Structures are given as structure tokens and as C-alpha cells.
């Protein structure tokens, strides 16, 4: 039996209960049917039905928000060390069920086992990290003035809404939910309708680890129904969202009447800039990894290659050769490097750019074709002979598609790098330290890596500029979002108070 056969056999065991019972909403520790009936989730691998999913509506969001409100005081006031123990236990259970999470995620999203086998462990790491911050999360400052001892503290903001995307749903859910719980907030989670499986696993794991009922609630549904209701609900004090910039704008509008706090992690059209003095072999590895891993469906992907013209021809030749060797196939095969795109709708969007590139005068130097008829597979694609004004250079494709654009000077590279509505990440490859300092200072991006692919360090801030988002995740920045600052001034003496109305 091959590794693929083994993984398929294991997957079928994990999926059996979902095929029988479907995926229910989870509210106040109980399974709840969707007020809107059910919708179906299918696998992008072969378009087969996975299971029915509860179709949550505004009524379900209301019930979940009330459950989160009811549970908030107990969770907020639970001793920090006790909450820490629960969150560590969540991490331990995630690790114990890592294989189940990975296989379900592959089948639900099309992501490859090569990468998803590590995603659950990264989710566990998120819970462990924020568990370690629980005790000091409310710590503040001591600020003396001539008449007062001023102290600050933080308190959890209240019940929050978390809306997560379909591309790596389990890991990204933990990235939002773990700090919210660590801060003392309760959560209503609306997962992406295209990939609901592992959100169900997460709430099961949390409750198995001892999370009290109502602290984490999951409502499945669609953006125009459940998502909109969550953003508008008065009991929900903040929304943490990962997804498209257009949707982020809608969320801001929907939460305006309740003055809702928003953290928006949005799209990107991220440049990787390769100068001729770079370590070109390492740069090539990083360029390929950052656009073709995770099926190219990642907000931090380096989808624009800005390559210095003195090395363009040689670099592109090596790039195309490598890309043509990338293994496209069944996501549960450990040897597969790219699996299918998540849905038919997204498949149609990504493949539409193959014709757009040709119409704009670019060259399809690699890929640009579908693979097979069964699922939503495409060959990894490289566009050359492009310029930065083309749609393929400006619009977020969100698939395994790279546009190569030449530049001559550092000034030209910087201008092109910044000439986009987005500003999430940037990657700079050069061995000139002065150039690296100057370039990164002027590059309009929330996160930049020099001579490196995207390597996340959990205490650092994660987020973008311009249309790529508002706010930062990571380290104490997460607590700044999920908590309110409070100032208290204690008089240190009987300072003069101005008397009004005294004779």
C-alpha cells in the first residue's frame, strides 16, 4: 500500500461521522442545527460531496453572541493560571489529533499534505505561545506625576467575532482565536463556508481541553447572512477578519453603527525584488517557495518578481525549468507539491488570468493550463515579458501564478514595488547592506524580509498597509486589539483643587 492509499484510508475513517451527521453549529457547548437548513461542502480533489453543513443565519448568530456574552464574565474572571492550563491543554489535544486535522484540511481545501502536516502543529504553537502570555496580559505601567500615582491596566474587550478564510483555515483560526481566549474574551467563530471541517475539529478540541461552554462558539454560514449578522450584532465588540480587501471594506461598513473595533488582515500583491548582487541560488529557492507553496493561495505570497535586467534572462530560465518540475497531484500524496484550487469559482477566477495575460501582451512561459478533468487542478504558471501596469501585475490572483517584471535601477524597482494598492509584505534580495536599509525604509509594506522567505516569529507584528489591512497580530499587538486600556490615577497628597461656587 502506498502512502497515498494509507492516507486515503485514514481520511475515510475520520470523515465517516461527518458523512452521517454532517457539521452542526456549536453554541454554548451544544450542537445546533442551522436556521437556514443545510448547505453542502465538496472536495476540490474530485468534486465529491463531503457532508452537509448547518446553514447559520442571523438567528444562529444571535444565539451564539448571547452565549458568548453569558460566558464572558466567568471566563474573564477565571484565574489567569487556570486559563493558561486550559489553553496549553488545547495545544496538547491539537498535537494528538494533528493527523486528523491535516488529512481533513487537505480534502476540504485541496492543500497538500506536504504543508498541512505541519499546519496543525503550528496551530498548537499559537496556543502555547499565547498561553504563556496569559499571566502578564493585563499588566500595565506605573506613571508618576507631581500629584498622582498613575497606573494602567488592560481588560478584555468582551465577546468578539472571528471570521476566517478557506486557504489554511485551521492554522489561521488558531492565530485569531488563541490570543482572543488568552486575553479573556469569548468568541463567535464564523469559518469560511468553503472549508468548514477543521473549524468543527477546533471547537471539539477546545471543549475536550476544558474550555467552558459558550467561550468558543462556531456558526457556519455565508458572508451575506451569518457574516453580516456577526458584524452588526451589538453584543460583539470587535471583529477579527482574514480575507479579501473588498470584504474587509464591507465588514467595516457593517460594524459602523455599533462602533465595532476591526482587525483586518487583507490581500496582497507582494513583490520579491532580486538584485544582481544577491545570492541567486537562494533567491530562486525563495521565489519559488513563496508563490507556489500552499497552492499559491496565501496572502503573503510573492506574486510579483521584480528582477534586475542584468540577470533577468538567466534567472527566468532557471525559474521556468524548476517550475515545470513542480509536482501537481493528489493532495494526500506526500510527494505532491501543488494540489487543486479550493472551489470551482476560485478555479475559474485564477484560470481567467491565463487569457488576460495573453491579451495584455505577456508571455505564458510556464503553465497556464488545467490539469485533468476531475478536480480543480492547474499547472504552476509564470508570466514573463510583463510590466507593472498590467492587470496580472496589479490584481491579487491568489493562486500558483507568478508575474516576472524586469527593472534597471534601484529607484525603478522601488517605484514599481510601491505602485500597487496593496502593502502586505515585501521580499528583498541583495548583499548590499546599505541598499537593503534604504530600500526597506521606503518600501510600503507592513512586513519585509531581507534575504529570506517568510519566516514568522510569533512575538513580531503581522499585518499590512494600504489596502492590505488595519491592525497587527502577534505578540503584545494581539492583546492591544482584544483588550481595552484602563488608566487609574491615585492622589499622592492633597493637591490644590480649584473651588467653584465657594464664597
Describe this structure in words.
The chain folds into 2 domains: 284 residues, 3-Layer(aba) Sandwich (Aldehyde Dehydrogenase, Chain A, domain 1); 180 residues, Aldehyde Dehydrogenase, Chain A, domain 2 (3-Layer(aba) Sandwich), CATH 3.40.309. The model has no long low-confidence stretch (mean pLDDT 97). It is globular. The protein is built from 16 helices and 24 strands. The protein starts with a helix and ends in a 12-residue tail after the last strand. Helix 3 runs antiparallel to helix 5, helix 4 packs across helix 5 and helix 5 runs parallel beside helix 6. It is of the alpha/beta class. The strands form 7 sheets. A 7-stranded mixed β-sheet has the order 14-17-18-13-12-20-21, with helices on both faces. A 6-stranded mixed β-sheet has the order 9-8-7-10-11-23, sandwiched between helices.
The N- and C-terminal alpha carbons lie at a distance of 97 Å
CATH superfamily of the largest domain: Aldehyde Dehydrogenase, Chain A, domain 1
Reading off the top of the CATH hierarchy, the class of the largest domain is best stated as Alpha Beta
Q: Outline, from the CA principal axes?
A: globular
Continuous helix count: 16
Can you summarize the main beta sheet? 7 strands, mixed
Portion in helices: 40-55%
Query: Which oligomeric state applies?
Result: single chain
Considering the chains and any ligands shown, give keywords for the structure:
alpha/beta, 2 domains, 20% strand, globular, 503 residues, 16 helices, six-stranded mixed β-sheet, single chain, Aldehyde Dehydrogenase, Chain A, domain 2, 24 strands, 42% helix, Aldehyde Dehydrogenase, Chain A, domain 1
Amino acid at each position: 500500500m502506498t502512502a497515498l492509499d494509507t492516507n486515503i484510508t485514514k481520511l475515510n475513517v475520520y470523515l465517516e461521522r461527518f458523512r452521517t451527521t454532517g457539521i452542526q453549529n456549536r453554541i454554548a457547548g451544544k450542537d445546533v442545527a442551522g436556521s437556514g437548513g443545510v448547505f453542502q461542502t465538496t472536495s476540490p480533489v474530485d468534486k465529491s460531496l463531503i457532508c452537509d453543513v448547518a446553514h447559520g443565519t442571523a438567528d444562529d448568530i444571535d444565539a451564539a453572541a448571547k452565549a458568548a456574552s453569558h460566558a464572558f464574565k466567568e471566563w474573564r474572571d477565571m484565574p489567569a493560571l487556570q486559563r493558561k492550563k486550559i489553553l496549553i491543554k488545547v495545544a496538547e489535544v491539537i498535537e494528538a489529533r494533528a493527523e486528523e486535522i491535516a488529512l481533513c484540511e487537505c480534502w476540504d481545501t485541496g492543500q497538500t499534505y506536504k504543508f498541512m502536516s505541519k499546519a496543525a502543529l503550528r496551530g498548537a504553537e499559537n496556543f502555547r505561545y499565547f498561553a504563556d502570555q496569559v499571566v502578564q496580559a493585563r499588566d500595565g505601567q506605573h506613571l508618576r506625576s507631581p500629584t498622582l500615582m498613575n497606573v494602567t491596566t488592560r481588560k478584555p474587550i468582551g465577546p468578539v467575532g472571528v471570521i476566517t478564510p478557506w486557504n489554511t483555515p485551521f492554522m489561521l483560526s488558531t492565530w485569531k482565536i488563541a490570543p482572543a481566549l488568552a486575553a479573556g474574551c469569548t468568541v463567535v467563530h464564523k469559518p469560511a463556508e468553503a472549508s468548514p471541517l477543521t473549524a468543527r475539529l477546533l471547537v471539539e478540541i477546545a471543549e475536550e481541553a476544558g474550555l467552558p461552554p459558550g467561550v468558543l462558539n462556531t456558526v457556519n454560514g455565508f458572508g451575506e447572512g451569518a457574516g453580516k449578522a456577526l458584524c452588526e450584532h451589538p453584543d460583539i465588540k470587535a471583529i477579527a477578519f482574514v480575507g479579501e480587501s473588498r470584504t474587509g471594506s464591507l465588514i467595516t461598513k457593517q460594524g459602523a453603527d455599533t462602533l465595532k473595533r476591526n482587525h483586518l488582515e487583507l490581500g496582497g500583491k507582494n513583490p520579491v525584488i532580486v538584485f544582481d548582487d544577491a545570492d541567486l541560488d537562494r533567491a530562486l529557492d525563495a521565489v519559488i517557495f513563496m508563490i507556489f507553496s500552499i497552492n499559491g493561495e496565501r496572502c503573503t505570497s510573492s506574486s510579483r518578481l521584480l528582477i534586475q535586467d542584468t540577470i533577468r534572462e538567466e534567472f527566468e530560465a532557471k525559474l521556468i525549468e524548476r517550475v515545470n518540475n513542480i509536482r501537481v497531484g493528489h493532495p494526500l500524496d506526500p510527494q505532491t507539491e501543488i494540489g487543486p484550487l479550493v472551489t470551482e469559482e476560485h478555479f475559474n477566477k485564477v484560470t481567467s488570468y491565463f487569457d488576460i495575460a495573453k491579451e495584455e501582451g505577456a508571455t505564458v512561459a510556464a503553465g497556464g493550463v488545467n490539469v485533468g478533468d476531475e478536480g480543480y487542478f492547474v499547472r504552476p504558471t509564470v508570466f514573463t515579458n510583463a510590466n507593472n501596469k498590467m492587470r496580472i501585475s496589479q490584481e491579487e490572483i491568489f493562486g500558483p501564478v507568478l508575474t516576472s517584471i524586469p527593472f534597471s535601477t534601484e529607484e525603478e524597482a522601488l517605484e514599481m514595488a510601491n505602485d500597487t494598492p496593496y502593502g502586505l509584505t515585501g521580499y528583498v534580495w541583495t548583499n548590499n547592506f546599505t541598499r537593503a536599509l534604504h530600500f526597506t525604509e521606503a518600501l510600503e509594506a507592513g512586513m519585509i524580509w531581507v534575504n529570506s522567505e517568510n519566516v514568522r516569529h510569533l512575538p513580531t507584528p503581522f499585518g499590512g498597509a494600504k489596502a492590505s489591512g488595519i491592525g497587527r497580530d502577534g505578540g503584545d499587538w494581539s492583546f492591544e486589539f482584544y483588550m481595552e486600556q484602563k488608566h487609574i490615577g491615585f492622589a499622592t497628597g492633597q493637591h490644590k483643587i480649584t473651588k467653584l461656587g465657594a464664597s
